[in-house]
């Protein structure tokens, strides 16, 4: 049996990893879809598809599971999104997601969807982990060690802090408020 699990994985964290471990008890093979593959270099989506492929491929190597990592660009039409996914991926029997839109789209297409409990959600949430990276607070214990290595190799924290500062500058420019000194010397 082959499963499909989609996420943005910005970054791939221990909640995703626990979900994959749980899925590995139910399927022999797993397609991991990297959603919003075309997005990167923003506060919401800092890492490229290639960087996320590295994070996931290295992390799931510890499980006894055949995996296929497939980057999936967003398309501007929910009604045909499942067909888009199917056109890019190996066939699968069951989809895993806790995202209500994803669940609805797969169910409407007649594909079985399984949801899982959220693991330690207070700590294991992408947006919380990205904010901790921006604020120089501890985040390494919330992702697999192989993901720490990839983020360090690509200088991911510096990038995220830079794009976050740029977003803040744009917000100040839009409101006309004066820019705090901490953002004044932002490198281009
Ligand atoms: N701690 C968790 N435990 C179980 N499933 C999770 C956990 N965090 C996310 N998921 C699920 O994994 C899938 C992919 O999630 P996603 O990549 O959006 O992570 P996220 O932590 O929700 O990130 P963000 O805050 O950036 O939206 C979704 O179905 C999501 O509900
Ligand atoms: N129309 C579309 O392109 C469409 C529809 C539903 C989900 N998606 C993508 O699937 C992924 C779902 O992952 P998350 O559960 O992490 O949000 C996201 O990247 C989302 O953009 C895309």
TrEMBL record:
Catalytic activity: beta-nicotinamide D-ribonucleotide + ATP + H(+) = diphosphate + NAD(+)
Pathway in which this enzyme or protein is active: Cofactor biosynthesis; NAD(+) biosynthesis; NAD(+) from nicotinamide D-ribonucleotide: step 1/1
Pfam families: CTP_transf_like
EC number: 2.7.7.1
Originating organism: Haloarcula argentinensis
Taxonomy, superkingdom: Archaea
Family, similarity comment: Belongs to the archaeal NMN adenylyltransferase family.
Main location, first listed in the record: cytoplasm
Annotated Gene3D superfamilies: HUPs (3.40.50.620)
Residues annotated as domain Cytidyltransferase-like: 4-132
NCBIfam families registered for this protein in UniProt: arch_NMN_Atrans, cyt_tran_rel, PRK01153.1
Record keywords, A-Z: ATP-binding, Cytoplasm, NAD, Nucleotide-binding, Nucleotidyltransferase, Pyridine nucleotide biosynthesis, Transferase
High-level lineage: Archaea, Methanobacteriati, Methanobacteriota, Stenosarchaea group, Halobacteria
Protein name: Nicotinamide-nucleotide adenylyltransferase
InterPro entries from the UniProt entry: Cyt_trans-like, NMN_Atrans_arc, Rossmann-like_a/b/a_fold
Localization per record: Cytoplasm
Keyword Nucleotidyltransferase: yes
Gene Ontology molecular function: ATP binding; nicotinamide-nucleotide adenylyltransferase activity
One GO cellular component term noted in the UniProt record for this chain: cytoplasm
First and last residue of the signal peptide: none
């Amino acid at each position: 049996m082959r499963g499909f699990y989609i996420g943005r994985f910005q970054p791939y964290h221990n909640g995703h990893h626990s979900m994959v471990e749980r899925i590995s008890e139910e399927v022999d093979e797993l397609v991991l879809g990297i959603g919003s593959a075309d997005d990167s270099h923003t506060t919401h989506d800092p890492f490229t598809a290639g960087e996320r492929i590295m994070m996931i491929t290295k992390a799931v190597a510890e499980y006894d599971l055949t995996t296929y990592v497939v980057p999936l660009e967003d398309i501007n039409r929910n009604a045909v999104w499942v067909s888009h996914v199917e056109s890019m991926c190996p066939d699968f029997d069951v989809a895993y997601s806790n995202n209500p839109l994803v669940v609805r789209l797969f169910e409407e297409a007649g594909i079985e969807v399984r949801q899982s409990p959220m693991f330690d959600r207070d700590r294991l949430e992408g947006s919380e982990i990205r904010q901790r990276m921006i604020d120089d607070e501890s985040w390494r214990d919330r992702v697999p060690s192989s993901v720490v290595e990839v983020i360090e190799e690509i200088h991911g924290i510096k990038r995220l802090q830079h794009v976050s500062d740029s977003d803040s500058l744009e917000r100040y420019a839009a409101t006309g408020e004066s820019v705090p000194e901490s953002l004044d010397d932002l490198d281009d």
